[in-house]
Design a protein that fits this description.
With about 230 residues, this protein is an alpha/beta fold. The chain has 9 helices and 7 strands; from the N terminus they run H-H-H-H-E-H-E-H-E-H-E-H-E-H-E-E.
Length: about 230
Amino acid sequence: MASHSASHPQDPVHRALGGGWSTFLAAAMRSPRDVGTLLPSGPELARRLAAVVPGAGQAGRPPVVVELGAGAGAVTAVIAREADRDAVVIAVEKDPELADRLRARELGVRVVTADAATLASILADHGVDRADVIVSVLPWTLFGPQRQREFLTIFAAALASDGVFTAAAYSLGYWTPAACGFRRELGRVFGEVLPTRTMWRHLPPAMTYVCRRPGTAGVDISADPSR
């Protein structure tokens, strides 16, 4: 497994961002619809999102792991720690200042400053055509229905047939129209969609979706993550 021994401040927010709290907050104020929150992903959510990374990929080639909406690296650091040593880990962040901050942390990942919608081109630039794991920290409930559909279609097309897509979601908005629409779109794009239990101690409370079998429609997402 990849190993990173850099020390960080003990405060959880500073530790998650490698001391880059002010950079994260500035990005949230500058582009609130892109960042989606004033708080970074907490350690529990980061571990939940990265849980699909170990063992990803097929024998004989390095696994490809992509994080979309990497921010200043709260989730990226856990992905880098959990990924195989030879894995290709690509962190995509649209905000240039956040991307620069993430590069400065030297987590051993490839940081790309780009819109997540260009994922196919990003993979091609790195010499791969499919990802084994796609981790999304994008603010899905702030996207309209068309943008949700466009993004998920792009991401599913970039995922290996046996790959995994996982996305963070905030539980307090679970019954909003945007959140319900996102669940419907996941079921349209993936043949298996697993909502995980809510992490109530996370601020704000959050859960994740773990999705497999891209390109298969008709999933009924009936589990209640508020339990």
